[in-house]
């Protein structure tokens, strides 16, 4: 149920971008759809627009609920709304589902007009840079020439970062939360195991499982279970689940025994009904590829030279997927360029998932930063 | 090739234990085979026997090589041999393949005499306590009434610990390396994802894949890939692989791109030819179940009350599977019982895998401890 300070009932909108998009992979997409939602109102000066970029398994439905679906609360409803840290009484907030996603924007499950079939694995690999380009097209469609802020956590934070690099004049503030300037070998390793689980599933059918009226459920489930382990901290798993047994004693078999097993399997099963496997592959590749310093021989400070935005960078102490160290690297590179950056390392037990939670200090920092943005 | 101080050419030996074994699960095994190897000679007083317990993917072949197979070096050849830290000039060292394994001891791939078929998934769940019981049977068969030391790393260390609990008079020293007194929720979570990968593989056939002349290769491969991520430290993966690309540039596809992907897939593929999937399931359950403090309301100090052995406990700083904190818990519980314990926390970049490696300080500590053992 939406709280009294929720944006309330929302309706997704669609835009057809009828402009060819040349992707970083070299492939061109002739046109595409984006589904998005907006909360609040665009002011006369068009100076109060805030773009929220989603992470791996997120989408355009950032806040509010759908009519007749009281449990359909947006993934960042605790952050975005009237009087909330990202205040929709002040800002015009936009959530968009990225290209390659599976919640309404053009993606692998969409029909490719050229073939009449699902794109499937033929959907091109998309990068964070490609997404920012499409988001810029959406902004233009909405008559927005500059964002007051671009905000995101995890992969969403990478998009916020990319905005300041690709469109330095179109973004005044970037909120980069629980993110990183690039993935480590360990990060990539986890993503590759998740991909291999999907790709080697006998029901993957080279990505064309739609034609077989099935989906690589086993693989997608494993991918999600694995993802969940990386989103939680060792500590929070221990305190939430420990070694609790579902039946209080060993059953000496391979069915669920420990509560953590029950939790993970439940999360895995649930996810296979909510997310497209091909989209999952694409999202992990976008994560793996993101590396703005690469064009500068690994020098992140050099990569930030043309940046003009101001930043709020936030990390969480028990996040071992994108540890505080990664955020510190971003902060230092920004400071090397005398960029205005506020940084907070928030004590939290909830690991990488912290960025989705309602931590008081975290929300106060975002609230203060957003309050300070002139529109 | 064996070094000049290797035990040299070795030959596995088999024993048929014709005594029923009542397992912790309640199931009884009427008889079973164990494959083992020995290095060095048992002295007249039978006081110099050392038992080496293997970990998840290990076996009885601890040191030396097989005739005509120069690359078949034992998994702990750098530790066990003439003049090595576990000196076979002084000790009679025994390596045994645990029940449920797949290297010659009775396990899921063995034929169940009662049915004439492979045990498959009908092979009962075995615990660390069960293994110690079988190892005691082997000792009796070899005329050994007391071990100078029981040694192991990881799951092997858990067995060493169990020996001091179950047979306090039969073990004088326990070397417990890179181990833990129980697994955490995160540990169990990783094991369960590995198990689910195998169990949901369409070629698992309820564990009876032998009858179908196949094996759950995809699942076992994923399990191994995942295991490898947990055996390496974030740091060592970064320095060994980083974000190196195999072809120097992105290929915008799902084949191997990053070197870490290449490494993991290679390890996964290799493993499916070397290890039985049902055995893998059993090994992970034994890990999950191990919890000596559980019978004492979680009080490890109480669990160690009857322990009489002396201990060397070793941990490695970057081991995030069984972190130093876990070893410290063991050490403190031993100290609570005024047990003679030596403890070393070894600075290493190699994560959990460190216990298999030739770190100078690590080997010096083991060497010193072993040298100090009276036989």
TrEMBL record, chains A, B:
<keyword id="KW-0963">Cytoplasm</keyword>
<feature type="domain" description="AB hydrolase-1">
    <location>
        <begin position="48"/>
        <end position="356"/>
    </location>
</feature>
<keyword id="KW-0486">Methionine biosynthesis</keyword>
<feature type="active site">
    <location>
        <position position="352"/>
    </location>
</feature>
<feature type="active site" description="Nucleophile">
    <location>
        <position position="154"/>
    </location>
</feature>
<comment type="function">
    <text>Transfers a succinyl group from succinyl-CoA to L-homoserine, forming succinyl-L-homoserine.</text>
</comment>
<dbReference type="InterPro" id="IPR008220">
    <property type="entry name" value="HAT_MetX-like"/>
</dbReference>
<feature type="binding site">
    <location>
        <position position="224"/>
    </location>
    <ligand>
        <name>substrate</name>
    </ligand>
</feature>
<dbReference type="GO" id="GO:0009092">
    <property type="term" value="P:homoserine metabolic process"/>
</dbReference>
<keyword id="KW-0012">Acyltransferase</keyword>
<dbReference type="InterPro" id="IPR000073">
    <property type="entry name" value="AB_hydrolase_1"/>
</dbReference>
<comment type="subunit">
    <text>Homodimer.</text>
</comment>
<dbReference type="GO" id="GO:0009086">
    <property type="term" value="P:methionine biosynthetic process"/>
</dbReference>
<keyword id="KW-0028">Amino-acid biosynthesis</keyword>
<keyword id="KW-0808">Transferase</keyword>
<feature type="site" description="Important for acyl-CoA specificity">
    <location>
        <position position="321"/>
    </location>
</feature>
<dbReference type="InterPro" id="IPR029058">
    <property type="entry name" value="AB_hydrolase_fold"/>
</dbReference>
<protein>
    <recommendedName>
        <fullName>Homoserine O-succinyltransferase</fullName>
        <ecNumber>2.3.1.46</ecNumber>
    </recommendedName>
</protein>
<feature type="active site">
    <location>
        <position position="319"/>
    </location>
</feature>
<dbReference type="GO" id="GO:0008899">
    <property type="term" value="F:homoserine O-succinyltransferase activity"/>
</dbReference>
<comment type="similarity">
    <text>Belongs to the AB hydrolase superfamily. MetX family.</text>
</comment>
<dbReference type="GO" id="GO:0005737">
    <property type="term" value="C:cytoplasm"/>
</dbReference>
<feature type="binding site">
    <location>
        <position position="353"/>
    </location>
    <ligand>
        <name>substrate</name>
    </ligand>
</feature>
<dbReference type="Pfam" id="PF00561">
    <property type="entry name" value="Abhydrolase_1"/>
</dbReference>
<comment type="pathway">
    <text>Amino-acid biosynthesis; L-methionine biosynthesis via de novo pathway; O-succinyl-L-homoserine from L-homoserine: step 1/1.</text>
</comment>
<dbReference type="GO" id="GO:0004414">
    <property type="term" value="F:homoserine O-acetyltransferase activity"/>
</dbReference>
